[in-house]
């Protein structure tokens, strides 16, 4: 079968799964709603509780989950390809910790501002992620013009530790309530209650996915090692830069919307590779689609399993991801 | 474990103190306990307060010894206290103080009834039993009075919010069915929309707020967390996203920035009155 045919088959297959998940999820929740009434547009929206639950509470949440899941999963694929390490996650290079620092500062100092309908915490988180990207890239560039993945990894891990220390420092001086709210943000929360955060992240998302599409073949070549890739005509430095920036921005956007939700960026790439093989031209789109479906499903579990209490979605992804990861490590290849 | 009787400092002679009590130097890390100690007449014996204490105004002149996560043990010890009021969860601090031979009073946050319990317990500990009893009985009578006034009024379903992100309804924390905030709401003549959730704090999702349809939304904060008045209209407008809830439709989203509500101390009756006035304006002119 040609690559194009396999591509179409993969995208249709995973796409169907994603579409079904996205259609079913907003219909389910801890409250039972009357769907006919929800779609009855003759009732003024401000009076229609069922419509408000569907269109204000559930649908934005589902869409946010899909975007965040797609971003984390595909960013995970790209980071694993860039660093040539199957244990790499979107959080390895410090982007999400930088975002977390931004969020912690906004929460602790009760920052009040809104831009384009986005409130302080998501804005601060995105700003933090940009700062982290800039610092890590500058450090990785410092020694030589090219981008050494070893130095990149070291810089990322170091900034991770540094930002974490800064977060603890801020938390120590914060009130107990602020500390609790920060902790809760770190567990992930997709209840956006508005389409604004999704629309605001759309440009970044589209740009990131466009670059990912271009990166598919370069990542295949990079998997052979940078020297082999270079000998096959790949501009390795350019590909690595594109991979680093696009995946980091994707991660930053995802963390701003829903917080640092773990395990999506590492489970999905591996699971998808088990199903479609290592070709990035298939793995990338499949991971984005499957990541969307997976996170939306996890959020569904998180908000219904212990109703009326809602669990943070990060707990569900961790509970699934942990055992999955152990299984990955111990199974016969 | 010998209880050292602290040598009185020169400044102590200018103020009255209970002559028979061995407790002459008191440190309190808990804002509500500090208020209680002043109310029962142990104020002159206070030598140190917590970082978040703000009432009565006398506390501003006292050294700050930290709070729940950052108690300054060295400073506490240097003040040579006989009694330190700590949080029930500060097990390490309790151990250190006990080893130093210093008396400890463990304070625990709970329901409204515990406010008077704690006042009486502090009264016994500081030998101001009569005054403590008077304060506690006054509080019980004041609350009963409010309950009586709202007894026959319809009870609005109320969402009692004590925290959320600025300019957003994300990270919204409301009082659950237990705890002093819930009890105050009950006494003030309201019904908690989360009365069935048996925790002190509920992180309410958008769906939950929409589904529970509160008639009134009360946002309470401490005075030092209050929003500047210029910001309040913007903060009110974020609720318009949930236009189907009666509280928004009927313009009954109210901000109550008052320490008397959020600190479960001797001023709870005043705090409950503030709430009652918000819920039943026709009764409390």
Residue share in helices of chain B? Answer: 25-40%
Main pleated sheet of chain B? 6 strands, mixed
Straight-line distance between termini of chain B:
56 Å
Tell me the total number of β-strands of chain A: 2
Q: What's the SSE pattern of chain A?
A: HHHHEEHHHHHHHHH
Shape of chain A: globular
Would you give the CATH topology of the largest domain in chain B? Rossmann fold
Question: What radius of gyration of chain A results from the CA coordinates?
Answer: 20 Å
Oligomer: heterodimer
List keywords for this structure.
heterodimer, A: 333 residues, ABC transporter involved in vitamin B12 uptake, BtuC, B: 285 residues, alpha/beta, Rossmann fold, four-stranded parallel beta sheet, 35% helix
Summarize this, please?
Chain A has 333 residues and is mainly α.
Overview of this protein structure:
The complex is a heterodimer of chains A (333) and B (285). Chain A has 13 helices and two strands. With 333 residues, chain A is mainly α. Chain A has one domain (3-330): ABC transporter involved in vitamin B12 uptake, BtuC, CATH 1.10.3470.10. Chain A is globular. The two termini of chain A are 25 Å apart. The mean pLDDT of chain A is 92. Chain B has two domains: 22-142, Nitrogenase molybdenum iron protein domain (Rossmann fold, 3-Layer(aba) Sandwich), CATH 3.40.50.1980; 155-279, 3-Layer(aba) Sandwich (Rossmann fold), CATH 3.40.50. Chain B is 35% helix and 15% strand. Chain B has helices at 31-39, 73-78, 91-99, 113-125, 129-150, 180-187, 206-212, 232-237, 246-249, 259-262, 268-279, and strands at 26-28, 46-49, 83-87, 103-107, 157-163, 173-175, 191-192, 201-203, 216-221, 253-257. In chain B, strands 5, 6, 7, 8, 9 and 10 form a six-stranded mixed beta sheet that branches. A four-stranded parallel beta sheet of chain B has the order 2-1-3-4, with helices on both faces. Chain B is globular and about 60 Å long. In chain B, 46% of the residues are buried. Mean pLDDT of chain B is 90; it is low at 1-19. Classes of the chains: A mainly alpha (333), B alpha/beta (285).
